[in-house]
Amino acid sequence: MQRAGFFRVLQPKRWGGYEMDLHTFYEIQLALAEGDMSTAWIYGVSGVHPWFMALLDDRAAQEVWRSDTSVLICSSLMPAGRATPAEGGYRLSGRWRYASCCEHCDWALLGAMVATDGGGLPEGRIFLLPRKDYGTIDTWQVSGLQATGSWDVTVEDMLNAFLDYGKTRLTRAGGRSAENPFVQLLCAETAAAIDEMTNTLHRNFRNLHAYAKRGEAPPLEERLRYKFQSTEVTERCTLLAARIFKATGAAGLAEGLPFGGILADLMAGRQHISNQYEHVGSSWGGVMFGLENKDLML
Question: Which fold has domain 157-288?
Answer without folding.
Answer: Butyryl-CoA Dehydrogenase, subunit A; domain 3 (1.20.140)
